[in-house]
Amino acid sequence: MTETEVLSKITIEHPFQKNRKKDSNVTNEETTITDVKRILSIINEDEVKCDGSFEKMIKNSLMTLVSVWREKKTHSEVAFEGLLIVLELCLQNNGQQPVFSTLIEALGYHSVQFWKSAIPIVFNSDLTYGTKYRDALLFNLTLFDVNSGRSKLKELFAADPYLQKSLLGVNAKRFGEQYHSLQRRRSKSSLLQSEESMSELSEDETDIVVKCSKEKQLRRHRSIHITSSSESLDKHDDSGDDNNVNTTFSTGGLTSQYLKKRVINVSNAPPVSLKKEKTGEWEIKQGSGGLVSCVDPVMSKDHENMWLANLGMNINKRNSSCDLTNKGLIVDNPPTTNTLGLPLIRQQLADVLFHVLADDEEVEDVSDKNKGVKDDLSLLGVLNNYNKGNYKLNPVIVQEDDYNVYYGGISNGLIWPAFHNLEEYIVKIYDDPLTLNDHWCAYVRVNYQFAIDAVRNSRPQDFIWIHDYHLMLTGMIMQNLDPNLEVGFFLHIPFQPSDEFFTKYSICSLPVLRGLLKFSKVGFQTHRDRESFIDYIKKYLPTAQIFFDPKTDTHTITHEGTNSSLGVFPVSIKNEDFLKIAKDSRIIEKSLKQREIVMGKNPPKDSNLIFSVERFDYTKGIKEKLLAWMHYFKKYPERIGKDVLLQVAVTNRRSVDTYRIYQDECLEIAEQINGTYKSSEYPNWKPLIFSTDGLPRESLVATYLAMDIGLVTPKKDGMNLVVKEMLVCNPHAGLVLSTGAGSEIQFTNAGLYSNEEQTYKRVVNMFDIDEFADAIYKAAIESKEVRSAHGKKLNEFIMANDIERWSSSFLDPAWSHQVIKLSDIKTLDDFYKLMMRTRDIRRQIVERVLKGIPISDHFSISLINAKDSLLHACKPGTTQIILQTDGEESTPAQLDIATEVKEFERDISFLEFALSDDVYNVELFIDSLQSSHSGGAEQFRMEVSAVADLFYDADHFEYFFTDRDGTLKSYSCTYQGSVQPAYSGVIQAQFARRCAQTCCIVTTSPMLQIGVLDVSTIPEGYYYFGASVGRDWYLDPSNKFRDTTISPDDLHLLDIIFDAISAMLRESKWKRFTWIGSGLQKHYGHITLAHQDVFSTVENEQVLLLDKEIKNIVREHDPSGERIMIKLTETDIKIFLKTSTSGEIFTKGDGLTLFAKKMGFDLSKGHILVCGDSESDIPMLETCLKYNHDNVYTVWVSTNETLKEKVAYLCKIYNNDRYAFVSCPEVLLGGMAQATIREININRSLAH
């Protein structure tokens, strides 16, 4: 009997193969233990301890099962089934997270292998039995990652990449983007051009297999299109024949699409209010909350921006997914929130059921069902209409029970009071660990749904802006789903938790810290809040590295491989909105009436209307304010009959016990005040007018105008915009402000409250009623002139720091850690570090352009800042830079960075063209290079045409062998600064992809340790690299090989000579040679030392002395000259090991022979392109000519007539005339770009 047969007899049912519609078969802990014990008995592991708690038994069993499964021996399949039994239990029951965590820990590094085997079984259960194990698995891994700070969800995606794509709707999203891009291209191109652009619908265009003759014929009829700077591309000329062979095709550049950057705003609360009228119609109105006021200005700038929020449309248990499926309203999985208003999503909206919490009756009959569907579709229509005239509003739909716990429970019952440092208001149920864990899971589930919706609706170029304490885990989850997105977070409330929050509630507090660090940007209202956050990072995440940049006032924190920038952005208001109302004559008249109602017709001359307005929330200090107000009249009885406090406390959250109790206590104190203090002189006077109803904005502004003093005294508040509204509307009013308000910190930092002048009265201790009453009294007796002067200063500051500045400052990429900042370049090390940072930026640019992903703003800002930093360090009006080397007294390095500056300028220009929507962006960029060509625009065009003609004649290359420095890139002042520009990387990669089969860069430079791989920006897979003249080869990270003919003794000899030269260069007279040109480099098989730079700044006598010294060192260790050969070039002295076979030096030609032999390539077949710029590249050409003299094409970048004659003579020997000479690398790149463009156009024509 086989193992499988034994297994099928012993276990009643296999995991994930049970019909879950039968209640009797639902697994539980008891059946899981029974099944696991049976598995253990089969694999002869009965000795595993199965006593104790369920979790302990499972832990012991899992370690054994994983061990047996990993062995891949007799019982491996049985052990795997045991693991599936435990997994099924975890996916069936939400409360089995500890068991799931144990399973993940037991799998360890073998999780990817496990998921590859388990995923098909899990999915089959969903398809066969209607289970939802896939969703449960995704969430359980997300919860594990959140709680542990790990990234196990990525391992699941590594096992099955399609799972990630299907979850995030990648293919559908890509189609939508391409459709959108195509529509825009149609509007910008002629009919013929647009038709040609349609083939751009995919990044990888399929090669069309046709007869060679047809393809050749098409190629023969294509002409190159290069214009001078004075010419323009005729994009709309459709007067000619459609079949005109000279038609220029719209290439769309080297990238497929460009879509502009959007802001994706994500918040718990929506920017609108929804109301169902008696007629059954839905009414949607723009909201007026603080978040809307803050974000609406930036969102309204572009109708393509999007706002994701929960509109109260959720799925509740009474409308289960099963019932809804039967009704034909939704599919098996919970409804998603794909984009409202985008072509991709409009088709799917009919599948989404919106369930409104306020309208939650069961549907009883057919007519009710139809009415419900009609209502939902009516709501869809309202939202669609809203989206047509505004930014796109997308509802995020979650389970209703989860939402109630997430919002009404843990967010406002724990996180809100904890962040305000008001622990007495934390709901007591969170003292129970089980309740805390359950509610935390609900919080994670809602954040998970927000994250999925945000990723589904976002593109790589978008900025996703998450708001407030409800969604602090969204960034962490989004990074696991798609690490390419830029996600920022702003905390609108204070961050002032106590230590107890991190000890008593660690299950959620530590993940919150880690989660916030997963955002690329985090904004706080005040420096106080940011400092508090950093202090807790230092204490509870001690491995985090923290850096501060005083120039931008930002902290950058590096933790677990991610970087996060922390900034301070005091939020403000849209001043114009309030001023427009405040200047309205109707409102001014209304304010006079309002003042008369509150103060009476003939109040005392020194009376004051003191106004306070806020939500009826315990964080606002209303209770403390009322107690101080009561004490005020006791301490200052002369103010009785004069001063009136108008308190508006808008009731909210009465369903929460802590809020209801607090509100009732305040109302009781209010009654006590009015019952205690009366005025016989002014019998109609009341010390307090207390209202719990909200004020419409016009009434609110009218009251601001009517007041004499604003009273804003929260215990803790993120910013408190009321104070800003007050002073914008009424700059003559006085102000009493508590230090608990973020705005008070902002005012203090701005110098508005100092020893010299206090523009407002400050309350430091809210619980000191004496201090509180004194502050009010000082404001009350202040003269109108002084009060008005203080109010004016506050008004001017607020007017200069409005909401536009807040949002633009936060969204500005310049303060992010992703941006290279302006810096002082003083040392050689500063220069090298800056160039390596630009290398990283350029690599990202190349990768994004090649993938058709638009470029983020921070890339161009970084390149501009890098260029400006270098120029600022140069001598005025030059590109000469003097840098310190090892110490203050050491010889400074003097470099000419003209090449680096030019390449920065070209990359910046390249980004401008790449970001444009012009279908000719590549041609226009190549044209722009004409202006900097030393021989002028006409010579540039002629040289590019010659190269392109050569490539055109070849049609396609089987092999492309090229040098790098001097050929594909201009020489730099030092090799460490020789970073490949982004434009060069893109053009080379596309040429390799379109025009050649096997591409190799063969260089004399080493591979690493400041070698060719360190300064290259081309992604892997486009080129093979042959370093050290082709002795050291890199194909990919797992495929490398070297020349094996070098003996260990020879390598040791080379090491000795290298050490001797290094010691010599430490002497002050030789030290400059460590940084000019390529410096001292140890290669595999030879050593190079630069004795001159490309600008010939070293005196000839010094060069000769250095060469003599180096020859002496070599002669000392190889007196007979049998093992070492020295070669001198214009810029370098090169020390080669002689080959063991011929006694000659190893050349690039030998390197190509080694490469072809190792790879099994036949160089005698196919067309070969060879490019070089120096004598060391000639052996490459000679080797290729020997193998295949009829099919070799070569381009040489040189103005040296002697070298050009050598190349021409060598080709003539082999009867080859397929060569071209160009004056600079930019010409060669231009020819490569034109060849690539034409290849794309031909493939399109063949496809049509």
TrEMBL record:
Regions of compositional bias (Polar residues) in chain numbering: 242-251
Start and end residues of each Trehalose-6-phosphate phosphatase helical bundle domain: 827-929
Chemical reaction(s) catalysed: D-glucose 6-phosphate + UDP-alpha-D-glucose = alpha,alpha-trehalose 6-phosphate + UDP + H(+)
One annotated GO molecular function: alpha,alpha-trehalose-phosphate synthase (UDP-forming) activity
Enzyme Commission (EC) number: 2.4.1.15
All residue ranges annotated as the Trehalose-6-phosphate phosphatase C-terminal domain in the record: 960-1228
GO cellular component terms given for this protein: cytosol
Keyword terms of this UniProt record: Glycosyltransferase, Transferase
CDD domains: GT20_TPS
Family recorded in the similarity comment: In the N-terminal section; belongs to the glycosyltransferase 20 family. In the C-terminal section; belongs to the gob-1 trehalose phosphatase family.
Protein role: Catalyzes the production of trehalose from glucose-6-phosphate and UDP-alpha-D-glucose in a 2 step process.
Protein name: alpha,alpha-trehalose-phosphate synthase (UDP-forming)
Organism this protein belongs to: Parastrongyloides trichosuri
